[in-house]
Amino acid sequence: MNKIFPQGDANGSAAAGSKALPGGEGAVPQSLPGFLVAHCGDPASWIYSDQMCDGINNCGDCSDELSPVTTCPPCGPGWWRCPSAVFRYCSCIPRSLCRDHLQHCFDWSDEYSCPGP
User: What pTM value is reported for the model?
Assistant: First the structure.
C-alpha cells in the first residue's frame, strides 16, 4: 500500500490526461497547498505531508523517514528501533511485531532484545 505519486516521466512532463490520484501517476496537483505535499528522495515522486515520519516507508526508498530528506524524531513509545528487514518499515518497527517468532529486524533484535508490546 505504498502511496507514491510520480510527478511525470523522466523528462519532467506528466503524461497527457493523467491525474494525481492515490496509487496513480501524474503531476502534483496545482490546487493543493504546498504544505500538504512532501517530495521523496526521488524528485519525480511525492506523498502527502502527513505521511512523513509516520514510521511507514511511503516513498519506497525510506526518504520520508530518514535523513537527509527529512528529520524525524526517534521512534515513539510503541516502536522498536532496529535495522528493519521488512520493506514497509525503515528504522523502527511497531512493538506489536516483537517476539512473534518472525524476523522483522536484520539483527533479530525484535525477537531477542525488544521487550514486546
Answer: 0.62
